[in-house]
Amino acid sequence: MRDYIFIDSGKLSSLYDQIDSRVHEPQESQSSFELSLTGPKYSYKKNYGPSSVTDHQKIDQLTNYLSHSGRLSGERPFRVSHRDFNGALPEFVLEQCTATKVVIPARYRMDIEGLRHLSIWISDPLHGFEESVGDEWDFCGTFLYLTEVHLDADLVLPIMSGCSALQFIYNQATGRDLLTTDPYERLGRGSSLHPIQKLESLGGIVGDARTIECLYRPRYMIDEQRFSKLGSQHRVNDMVAYPIYIAEII
Asked: Which of 166, 148, 140 is nearest to 11 (CA)?
């Protein structure tokens, strides 16, 4: 079962409205008789038009459409190679993972009207960060950061900027240009603290880890993150993405 804990209703409706018109065609109500152990039973089923479709129904139909049209990936990208990376990321990703919510408090500048804090869901690399691919500039494994708001209005291709995705988020929270880099790279490869600890050191409020399902659009990915696990340091990728929904698996 899914307990929806975040839905971007505006973006969901916008995407849903772009689906092939056949999805939205209202159909006539249907009635029929069914056989049951207690005898004949009358059933009534109404096929609702688009005006009465719930967010949950939109999610199901949108996910099915993206899957059948080949626009949906079942896993996050886990590798960015300097040698062949062309800025291409999956258009949409649907995955289940464990994630922890971190809230950046309101004392940081927020340029988004009405926003009092910035919530980020952080998921560790699912696999790959222990792998060696024989190239010192090719790193595997990806941290995922889901932000509950769109941090920027203009969607441009990701670039090899040297700015970690965590720094990308923090730049927006503090009113700086999105790709501003920290000379010490404390939010990226300059520190081996876990990204949650990095945000916690800046006043972030950390919640409990949850098992979630999420549909999201990747926004920016780079290989400028470092963290320690089991006594070893790993340099990996990190990616900020905009969720259409986040649901806790219960």
From this structure: 148
CB 16, CB 62: distance < 8 Å: yes
To which H or E segment does residue 57 belong? helix 55-68
Closest CA to 167 of 158, 177, 156, 152: 177
Whole-model pTM: value is: 0.81
Which phi-psi region, left, alpha or beta, contains residue 126 (left: φ > 0; alpha: ψ -120 to 50)?
Answer: alpha
Q: What would the two tokens of residue 47 be? A: 């096929």
Domain ranges within the chain, ordered by starting residue: 72-249
Residues across the chain: 250
CA dist list (Å): 229 to 18, 121, 129, 133, 235: 43, 19, 10, 19, 11
Q: Which residues on adjacent β-strands are paired with residue 93?
A: 73, 216
Contacting residues for 60 by C-beta, under 8 A, at least 6 apart: none
- Strands 72-73 vs 2-7: parallel, antiparallel or unpaired: unpaired
Residue-wise pLDDT for 169-186, tens only, equals 888 777 788 788 888 899
Two structure tokens written together for 43: 């059933």
d(CA 96, CA 170): 25
